[in-house]
Design a protein that fits this description.
The chain is an alpha/beta fold. It has helices at about 10-20, 25-30, 35-50, 65-85, 105-120, 135-145, 205-210, 225-235, 250-255, 290-305; strands at about 55, 60, 95-105, 125-130, 150-155, 160-175, 195-200, 220-225, 240-245, 260-265, 280-285. The chain folds into 3 domains: about 5-85, Arc Repressor Mutant, subunit A (Orthogonal Bundle), CATH 1.10.10.10; about 95-165 and about 280-305, 3-Layer(aba) Sandwich (D-Maltodextrin-Binding Protein, domain 2); about 165-280, D-Maltodextrin-Binding Protein, domain 2 (3-Layer(aba) Sandwich).
Amino acid sequence: MNLSALSLRDLEYVVAVAELRHFGRAAERCAVSQPSLSAQIRKLEEALGLSLFERTSRKVLLTPRGEAIVAQARVVLEEARRLLALADGSGGALTGRLRLAAIHTLGPYLFPHILPPLREAWPDLTLILSEGRTDSLLEELRDGRLDAVLLALPVETDGLVAEPLFFEPFLLAHPAGHRLCSSPTLSLNDLDPSELLLLEEGHCLRDQALAACGLSARGGGVHATGLETLRHMVAAGAGCTLMPLLATQGEAGRTASVGGLVDYRPFDASSNGARPPGRVIGLVWRASDPRDRGLRDLAALLHRVMPAGTGPVLS
């Protein structure tokens, strides 16, 4: 195959279909008609002498060889973006499109807080927001499907940059009228492990809650699929849980308190002055991203506008 037959636009089409698993939605993302996108991908497949996708009436799947081609296409596109950043003199500033994701237990509560200042700072930046679990988000980040992720630190940072933003404390969410309501102080030692409700395996918040309470991976007998389900389980009187501060604030926190059936209470600082249980929230991106300077500017902005009730990250 001659290089002249390969275009970056064709690679964008292929990557879009691979990510969305749908030719129509991929065409919308690429601002082209579906017949044109399909024809270009067919042309590329013929030039490469292989099929990139399995096409059925219900879904689109990558072929084994297609997976390798898409992975390399992402590398080529990132290097092309690096070239453009050098050429336009932006010096790594944030321009064009930014695919920003957050873990499920953070995104719905942090995005409303950070979007206004972010949009003010970069009015021409096109934001594509999503959510997921830590492992899948890091995989998508390394593969080039995401540009930056907001999650709880620490994480494995080989090839990545992780910038701490703020400390988010955990509150105790318990049913209204619970025995701990009358306790003058509150520490983790006051919790009954048999009452502890957790998210299902795969959520980093589950691991953080277990670690804070000094329990094994098998601790807690009742699990929830998501944070809002967990909150409603507390409202139903099934037990108590550790709730991230941001999930208790604003409209989401008020609405999901289920008519006053859930109370939130902060933990007291320990006798030696140590912080109450919580997590460090950070922004993570690829070290190879040509927009490194812009992403550092983004991290600095997010640090400046840290939500009320959170605190600085202690070294």
